[in-house]
Amino acid sequence: MTTTTETTMTSTTSPGRLAWRRRAQAVGDSFRLFSHSRSGMVGLIFLVVIVLLAILAPVIAPARMLDVTQLMDQPRFAPPSLAHPLGTDHQGRELWVRMLWGARVSLIVAFAATAMSMIIGTVIGMAAGHFTGFTGGLLMRIVDFFLVLPSLILAIVLSTVLSRGVLTIVIAIGITSWASTARVVRAQTLSVESRAYIERSRVLGAGHWHVIFKHVLPAVMPLVMANTTLTVGSAVISESTLAFLGLGDPNQQSWGTILKNSMDVSAATSGYWWYVLVPGIAILLVVLAFTLVGRAVESIVNPTLRSR
Questions:
Q1: pLDDT 10s per residue in the chain (308 long)?
Q2: Best CA proximity match to 239, nearest among 89, 113, 98, 97
Q3: Residues with Cβ < 8 Å from 7, sequence gap 6 or more?
Q4: Is 77 part of a structural domain of the chain?
Q5: Is 11 a domain residue?
Q6: In 3D, which of 145, 151, 225 has the Cα closest to residue 188?
Q7: How many Cα atoms sit within 13 Å of 68 on the Cβ side?
Q8: How far, in Å, CA of 137 to CA of 135, rounded?
Q9: Other CB atoms closer than 10 Å to residue 224's CB: what's the count?
Q10: 248 is a domain residue
């Protein structure tokens, strides 16, 4: 009786609803597999806490706590203690306050730059894998050019030419980090388009847009998501590097800016170790958390890694 009912429901369900139902079930199965990864869950919980702290920064640490004119009585270079949990900087500002506000900028830049990189890489990768001949060859030559080009140097040049600011860093990181994603997506696109159901779609009259958006894009999205989590960690490092080199907005708090301020006052050689270690460890832990999440997602997408 149950089998007959399920068969009747399947036969009456439209293909669109059935496809969405299967995708929702696949997402649920993927999350259950992800929850079995201890390292992935540790990284995810840590990232959720950091994101919540960054969002609640104006509530936890109001902006007036960064106003130097209201901190005249605060000690400069105070070491970590009960009164100053992470110590103070060269202007008497609490380091934990700067870290909270810096997390907002660092994470926003990382997520925005990664989104830009993933969009460019996915579009060009699918186009290079789908279109053969001159178009595909030209796109791959462009990808190869960006792969061999030193991304940090190009990002520094873009940040120098454009006006300094958060948007400039996002553009610089996004433009210089999409090539590796494009190669991965192209390889997956070639693999998908070699399958029989793609050939059947073309025989039935499916055009380029139908094949790309109905078949190729859903197939490459899990791989893109896995690559995204790994790319965010690299974007955090890139943002911190550019800000450390003085190419960020000096009026915005970020972890790279805090490191630059510590270098400007020679904190490492003057005994103000907390001024260097706190932002450095924060960057290390966030990048490690993104890496753990990315590896867990990659093991779900790649059955070979899962079996190992």
A1: 444 444 444 445 565 576 667 767 766 777 787 788 888 899 999 999 999 999 999 999 888 888 887 877 788 888 999 988 999 998 889 999 999 999 998 899 889 999 999 999 999 999 988 887 888 889 999 998 888 888 778 888 877 787 777 888 888 888 888 988 899 899 888 888 888 877 787 777 777 787 888 888 888 888 888 888 888 888 898 888 888 888 877 788 889 899 999 998 888 888 899 999 999 999 999 999 999 998 888 888 765 555 55
A2: 113
A3: none
A4: no
A5: no
A6: 225
A7: 6
A8: 5
A9: 21
A10: yes
Instruction: Give the domain range for residue 174.
Output: 27-64+95-307
Residue 33: burial class (beta carbons within 10 Å; 0-12, 13-18, 19+) = middle
**Residue 37 one-letter amino acid:** S
pTM given for the model: 0.82
Classify residue 85: in a domain, yes or no.
Answer: no
Looking up tokens 């073309």 gives 202
3-state secondary structure the chain: CHHHHHHHHHHHCCHHHHHHHHHHHHHHHHHHHHHCCHHHHHHHHHHHHHHHHHHCHHHHCCHHHHCHHHCCCCCCCCCCCCCCCCCECCCCCEHHHHHHHHHHHHHHHHHHHHHHHHHHHHHHHHHHHHCCCHHHHHHHHHHHHHHHCCHHHHHHHHHHHCCCCHHHHHHHHHHHCCHHHHHHHHHHHHHHHCCHHHHHHHHCCCCHHHHHHHHHHHHHHHHHHHHHHHHHHHHHHHHHHHHHCCCCCCCCCCHHHHHHHHHHCCHHHHCCHHHHHHHHHHHHHHHHHHHHHHHHHHHHHCHHHHHC
Q: How many domains does the chain have?
A: 1
Provide the CATH number for the domain around residue 50. Answer: 1.10.3720.10
